[in-house]
């Protein structure tokens, strides 16, 4: 039994090494685009924080989505976060499966480049819409009466640039 496991482990190790040698030249070529996509995630965070300074709470708007799906409530808001984390990490692990399994259908670097490109395009549109509309947010911390509905004016530049 140990001989079989050792043989399979060496096959997996060879597959990981082969995929790494294939993907590293692509990473060397595509790293500026990947880095730009990652840096834009920070820019999106800055824009979201900036709009939080401008936000003025108001009454909730009527929405068919909120009418069809009832709110979870503040005591169950962790369900949303857990669902997001599960989906994100499942996708993250799935993109690295060619390093282990034999079916090679895509390159991990190219998938992440495409994902980041779509994220940047979507987030540019999102930034434009939330700066141009200024609608009241439906989340609990954005509602009237919440202490977090509006951020106080920043005292220095670091308060704006450091995203918590």
From TrEMBL:
<keyword id="KW-0472">Membrane</keyword>
<dbReference type="GO" id="GO:0000139">
    <property type="term" value="C:Golgi membrane"/>
</dbReference>
<dbReference type="GO" id="GO:0033188">
    <property type="term" value="F:sphingomyelin synthase activity"/>
</dbReference>
<feature type="transmembrane region" description="Helical">
    <location>
        <begin position="111"/>
        <end position="131"/>
    </location>
</feature>
<dbReference type="InterPro" id="IPR045221">
    <property type="entry name" value="Sphingomyelin_synth-like"/>
</dbReference>
<protein>
    <recommendedName>
        <fullName>Sphingomyelin synthase-like domain-containing protein</fullName>
    </recommendedName>
</protein>
<dbReference type="GO" id="GO:0047493">
    <property type="term" value="F:ceramide cholinephosphotransferase activity"/>
</dbReference>
<dbReference type="GO" id="GO:0046513">
    <property type="term" value="P:ceramide biosynthetic process"/>
</dbReference>
<keyword id="KW-1133">Transmembrane helix</keyword>
<feature type="transmembrane region" description="Helical">
    <location>
        <begin position="33"/>
        <end position="54"/>
    </location>
</feature>
<feature type="transmembrane region" description="Helical">
    <location>
        <begin position="78"/>
        <end position="99"/>
    </location>
</feature>
<dbReference type="GO" id="GO:0005802">
    <property type="term" value="C:trans-Golgi network"/>
</dbReference>
<dbReference type="GO" id="GO:0005789">
    <property type="term" value="C:endoplasmic reticulum membrane"/>
</dbReference>
<dbReference type="GO" id="GO:0045140">
    <property type="term" value="F:inositol phosphoceramide synthase activity"/>
</dbReference>
<dbReference type="GO" id="GO:0005886">
    <property type="term" value="C:plasma membrane"/>
</dbReference>
<keyword id="KW-0812">Transmembrane</keyword>
């Amino acid at each position: 039994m140990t001989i079989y496991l050792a043989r399979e482990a060496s096959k997996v190790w060879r597959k990981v090494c082969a995929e790494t040698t294939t993907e590293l030249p692509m990473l060397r070529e595509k790293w500026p685009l990947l880095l730009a996509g990652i840096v834009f995630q920070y820019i999106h965070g800055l824009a979201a924080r900036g709009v939080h300074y401008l936000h003025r709470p108001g009454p909730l708007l009527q929405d068919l989505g909120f009418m069809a799906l009832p709110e979870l409530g503040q005591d169950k808001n962790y369900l949303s976060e857990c669902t997001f984390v599960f989906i994100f990490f499942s996708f993250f692990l799935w993109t690295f499966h060619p390093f282990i399994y034999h079916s090679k259908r895509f390159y991990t670097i190219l998938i992440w480049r495409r994902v980041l490109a779509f994220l940047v395009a979507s987030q540019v549109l999102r930034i434009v819409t939330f700066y141009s509309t200024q609608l009241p947010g439906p989340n609990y911390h954005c509602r009237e009466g919440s202490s977090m509905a509006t951020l106080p004016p920043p005292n220095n530049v670091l308060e704006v640039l450091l995203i918590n």
